[in-house]
Amino acid sequence: GNSVTQMEGPVTLSEEAFLTINCTYTATGYPSLFWYVQYPGEGLQLLLKATKADDKGSNKGFEATYRKETTSFHLEKGSVQVSDSAVYFCALSDNNAGNMLTFGGGTRLMVKP
Amino acid sequence: EPEVTQTPSHQVTQMGQEVILRCVPISNHLYFYWYRQILGQKVEFLVSFYNNEISEKSEIFDDQFSVERPDGSNFTLKIRSTKLEDSAMYFCASRSGTSVDEQYFGPGTRLTVT
Question: Using one digit for the tens of pLDDT, what is the confidence trace for B50-73?
Answer without folding.
Answer: 999 999 999 999 999 999 998 878
